[in-house]
Design goal:
The chain is α+β, with helices and mostly antiparallel strands and about 90 residues long. The mean pLDDT is about 95. The longest helix has 11 residues. Pfam families: ThiS. InterPro entries: Beta-grasp_dom_sf, MoaD_arc-typ, Mopterin_synth/thiamin_S_b, Sulfur_Carrier/Prot_Modifier, ThiS/MoaD-like.
Length: about 90
């Protein structure tokens, strides 16, 4: 089961400058685990213990995984996971 993961620029140093990678898994957690096997250190950038870092937005296709099952959300072949660091700040 092949899942496409879109990697943000700030994490591409861990994926040999690849913007997208293909991994395997049956859930978002499995995908994170496979990402870390193929690209060591990536799970540390994605997880805070057993949860996604609060400053990351992770989408499975068009659904924010935080509101749709979290790391246990099931994935299927052909799905796309997009990792987006949250952007904040600015002033008036």
């Amino acid at each position: 089961m092949s899942i496409k993961v879109i990697i943000p620029t700030v994490m591409q140093t861990l994926t040999n400058a690849q913007k997208t990678v293909e991994v395997q898994g049956n859930s978002v957690r499995d995908v994170v685990s496979d990402l870390d096997k193929k690209y060591p250190g990536l799970s540390g950038r994605l997880l805070n213990g057993e949860q996604l870092h609060s400053y990351l937005n992770v989408f499975l296709n068009d659904d924010d995984v935080r509101f749709s099952g979290g790391l246990e959300m099931p994935v299927k072949s052909g799905d796309v996971i997009t990792i987006l660091p949250a952007v904040a700040g600015g002033s008036y």
